[in-house]
Write a structure and sequence with these properties.
single chain, about 375 residues, alpha/beta, Rossmann fold, 6-stranded parallel beta sheet, 13 strands
């Protein structure tokens, strides 16, 4: 059914979302999405002057470390605490006569912003609204989240999801939702050139075998279960666990756990936000990426790993089984199970699975391209 006016295969698209100097996965995702959209459509990005107030985020929201920032031209207008900026964005959408508005759904905290804009756009323009659902429901939930989420979703025309878990959550909230189950594209932008891994390993004082945990360190990421698996792993395999990421909370509890297990000599901690230009060095020295999440809908870290052709050991939660094929591109284990996590790491090394998994990843990641993602949007909304 044709829902957009005909414009010789080109849409006028306005995207709302973060880009540099904002850091993190959603900023990277949105920037790469806009770059790809621009190749095919008249695309404009409206970004945030202030995305979250300081009390909401436990970390610095801005990337002050990266020299090679992943960015695109944008108008920094939106302020989550200033309703006048919301009306300003609506007026731009109306004036531009956009065919499609795209925004990213991550947290109900921004519901007042998106409800106001979406309500005005839906009732006073011909612009259609596409919501990209990164997390239909947040990892840490409040009682009011369901109400706020339903409020925004009532104004949305199309939903683009990345996992079956998000599909289940969406259908519970909006039974007649018009959605498509898509995928999270692969990141191949973080200094993909071939690196001297031996030199980097020596500089970081790492052993020959290395497993990597990468990304923001939050409770639901399950890092403690990987740390608890290390003594079992070390009985069979001499390796290092490289932990790279910014702590979203109590850092000391992880350090205390490492100390109590006596594995300090086999754990290397880089407890900070990693600049874009440094991401490659940590993936280049890793044999396998281990992500022991206790809950998840999707993971941008898996797609970074695939960009570097690295196998992934992760948990059978949320949308992760939609991406990792058991024994083909990695291994899946039960969440909160340090024993099974240890056995999978040991299996990876003992059965010398690396070459087979890498070959499969090189073939598999082609289906996660940004070009295919944009074509999927085009076919869905037209």
């Amino acid at each position: 059914m044709a829902i957009l006016r005909q414009f010789e295969n080109k849409m006028k698209i306005i995207v709302i979302g973060p880009t540099a100097p904002y850091k993190g996965g959603i900023s990277h995702f949105n920037t790469l999405l806009c770059k790809t959209l621009k190749k095919r459509h008249n695309t404009h990005l409206i970004s945030w002057k202030r995305r979250f107030p300081e009390f909401f985020s436990k970390i610095d929201q801005l990337d002050k470390a990266s020299k090679a920032k992943l960015k695109i031209d944008a108008r920094f207008i939106l302020d989550s605490l200033n309703p006048f900026s919301w009306f300003k964005v609506y007026n731009i959408i109306k004036k531009e006569e956009a065919d499609l508005l795209i925004f990213h759904w991550v947290t109900p905290f921004l519901s007042p912003v998106f409800f106001t804009i979406s309500f005005l756009v839906k009732h006073f323009t011909k612009t259609k609204i596409l919501l990209v659902g990164h997390n239909i429901m947040p990892h840490e939930r409040r009682l009011v989240d369901v109400f706020l989420t339903k409020l925004v979703f009532s104004q949305v025309d199309f939903f683009l999801l990345h996992s079956k878990k998000d599909k289940e959550d969406l259908v519970r909230l909006k039974k007649n939702a018009n959605f498509i189950l898509g995928f999270h594209p692969t990141y191949e932008v973080f200094n993909m050139r071939k690196m001297d891994s031996k030199h980097i390993r020596k500089k970081l004082k790492l052993k020959k075998k290395v497993i990597l945990f990468f990304g923001y360190i939050r409770d639901y990421k399950g890092l403690s279960y990987l740390i608890k698996a290390m003594p079992m792993i070390l009985k069979k395999i001499d390796l290092d666990l490289l932990i790279v990421g910014e702590f979203w909370g109590d850092k000391e509890k992880y350090i205390d756990l490492i100390d109590s297990l006596g594995i300090n000599n086999n754990v290397k901690l880089v407890g900070r936000y990693v600049p874009n230009e440094e991401v490659g060095r940590y993936f280049s020295v890793a044999d396998v990426v281990v992500l022991p999440y206790t809950s998840s809908t999707q993971s941008g870290i898996i797609q970074i790993a695939f960009g570097f052709n690295k196998p992934v050991i992760t948990t059978n939660v949320g949308g992760l089984p939609d991406v990792i094929k058991e024994s083909e591109t990695g291994f899946l284990v039960k969440p909160r199970d340090s024993v099974m996590l240890a056995k999978s790491v040991i299996k990876f090394y003992k059965e010398e699975k690396n070459k087979l998994l890498v070959r499969n990843i090189i073939k598999e990641k082609k289906r996660f391209s940004w070009q295919k993602y944009v074509v999927m949007i085009e076919g869905f909304v037209k």
